[in-house]
Amino acid sequence: MEKNIGSFFEEKIQDAKVQFERTIDCKHTEFDDLYPYMSEQPQFFWYKRYVAWQELLTIVRLADDLELDWTSQFDEEQQDFVKNKVLDAKVLDDWYGKKRTEAGESKSE
Per its UniProt entry, which superkingdom is the organism in (predicted)? Predict the structure, then answer.
């Protein structure tokens, strides 16, 4: 069975993005299944975010090497985060944009 490489990478990028977003939201990921005994450790949540981030960056780098567009699955700010490659608090705080942050603040008031 032959698969188009463009659609293959589009699917893999989307999967990696979803995994990373699940780590931001502190939801269950495949990584939790690999290390169930670690879930009690506070540093585990940061570690799994870095693993998911690295997976996303690796797939994006491969897409770049193959000259495939990966940017269509990300908004402009997310594209900048990925291009800068550094996972920091700003990425985690602003990944979904300011609208989500503001919506979350108004719900808690």
Answer: Bacteria
| CA–CA gap between residue 15 and residue 9 (Å, rounded) | 10
Q: Is the pLDDT of residue 80 over 60?
A: yes
Among candidate residues 27, 13, 106, the one with its CA nearest the CA of residue 56: 13
Give the pair of three-digit tokens for residue 72: 């269509």
Break the chain into its structural domains and give their ranges: 5-108
Q: Are 46 and 103 in contact (CB under 8 A)?
A: no
User: Considering just the CA atoms, what is the radius of gyration of the chain in Å?
Assistant: 15
Residue 41 CA, distance from chain mean position? 21
> What token pair was written down for 60?
């994006």
The pLDDT tens digits of the residues spanning 9-46 come to: 999 999 999 999 999 998 988 888 888 888 788 788 88
Distance (Å, rounded) from C-alpha 107 to C-alpha 26?
A: 19
Q: For residues 83 and 39, what is the distance between their CA atoms, to the nearest angstrom?
A: 30
Tokens of 56: 């996303």
